[in-house]
Amino acid sequence: MKSTTTMNGGWIARLQDEIAQAWTVAVKDVKVYYLTPPMIMFGLVLPFFLFFSFSVKREIGVEVGMARLLALTTFFTASSAGPVIIPLERRMGTYDRLLAAPMSLLTLLLGKTLVGAFFATAVSMVPLGVGVLVLGVTVANVAMLLIGLVLASLAFAAFGLIFASIPTHSVGSIMMPSTLVRWPLMFISGIFVPLEEMAPWARALAHLSPLTYVQDLMNHAVLGAGALNPWLDLALLPLLLVIFLMPAAWLHHRSRVLGY
Amino acid sequence: MNNTIEVENLTKYYGDLLAVDHISFEVRQGEVFGFLGPNGAGKTTTQRMLTTLLEPTAGRIVIQGHDLAHDAYPVKRRMGLVPEESNVYTELTAWGNLMFTARLYRVPRQQREQRARELLETFGLWEKRDVKVEDFSKGMRRRLSIAMAIIHKPALLFLDEPTPGLDAQSARAIRDLIRQMQAEGTTIFLTTHQIEEASLLCDRVAIINHGQIAAIDTPEQLKRASERVQSVEVALAPSGTAPGEALAALPGVTTQVKMGDKWRLYTDDPSALLPQVIDYARSEELRVISLSTLGPSLEDVFLEITGQQVGTVRHEAQANDQRGKRGGRR
Ligand SMILES: Nc1ncnc2c1ncn2[C@@H]1O[C@H](COP(=O)(O)OP(=O)(O)OP(=O)(O)O)[C@@H](O)[C@H]1O
Ligand SMILES: [Mg+2]
Fold first, then answer.
1. Closest Cα to atom 26, ligand 1: which residue?
2. How many domains are there within chain A?
3. pLDDT score recorded for residue B145
């Protein structure tokens, strides 16, 4: 017999509990990890480094630059949170607290997704602030920009959790494989070469990278024009969140066989 | 049903390494159940399986009537866990750590603040409540991790070696707490490698070694067995003429084992044996290089209880030192 109703008042109460627990995990992680060196390194410095390495030589307008940097920060910052935080917690043994707590694994992963999304949204406020306040960029569609940033951050945070399932106590052992996947996804996307200027085969390839849609969405939001349908971009993001969470949940469950 | 934990054929392989080997036991409602064994016996592995942190390779765990493999949620709500290493958030304060755990276990707001205060006061940490845990000593972290484990008033508490490395006063405080929680009805699963501690606290003790349970017994039985395996260790010079038989013939010696240049003489009364060894050396004109009495080693108690020959422990095991010191870990 499944005892869904034996606790404090059935599945609605349980659902409330799980949401509160995911939130508790997220808030704690924000408090604990926002200033840890790997988080600053992989979450804050890396996207800016990539931007300036690959964009500075080309002549681009500040609007294009800002849209690009927003896509990069959501992608790299959000997907770094899980791979940084989870091994650190495993090493301290605090991850066991979360695994032993009365909540589902999905709730735990949802909490971790929220943390990544929070960091990524916070970091993207830097290019946004500088762009709008200092460089005088005008944003074509503010609502689309903000909703897009949040949804993209959530999806990419869940993406990072797939790598965080690697059973290890060291951040480095996760950054290696995650870089091997994330950098190619960055290069095949339309982030440095606009989709319109790509050869047909390259354009087909670009559609395989989730970053392509976020870049396009940011172009729509900031510049007011993009290569794809902005509604398609927007609709795809929640779908990606679910698509990334599923293998993440399965892999995290599996690594528990090893006791991680 | 008054078994809180029922374990059947529980087994864990780490790759090819068999860490826990088809063990079965029950823990009764309200008892302090000791899980006693030397380093590497499989204690932590077992506790991690009982607390859902590690998936068993085979076997069944039923806690409070719920099969852990399918229905862990209600168990997790009522379970508290103190792991081997104090796992506290060093970046948070003591108060922050407790609040986080209480929220995770959905302790209502008023209760959690009151309870956190009580616990901090009990553990002598109230003055330090706003200090980040990174500045805490090992003992303070230990106490905090225990407070975190019981903030939701668990009906079942797991403790993995709670006292090693603590000063006598802290260790006593923790033992008092265990007794008090038992008096309040909590069932306690206590992992330890100290015979002393097990006999002080436990209603029943399981002895585990090399992943197998040798016996489940009362502390009195355990004490009796451990008294039988005390020993005197002596090195004599010149050691040319093997004095083994002569030493074994001394009154009170049950077994004698050669360990390098030393002889270990098992006896249930070391203080009576000491002068005899000295007399023997004097009469044979041998020099006593070293002479010491040893308390019971867990490995020997284990062999005694399982009816095996005491002293048949491999010499490497001696080098590892089973007598209460902790080896380096990981
Ligand atoms: N994660 C792991 N991977 C591989 N082997 C492991 C792992 N954890 C433990 N072991 C091995 O399993 C065996 C049992 O280990 P366990 O930690 O359960 O012992 P223990 O009784 O808790 O010892 P101690 O008193 O040192 O804490 C040991 O041989 C150990 O080396
Ligand atoms: Mg252990």
1. B39
2. 1
3. 95
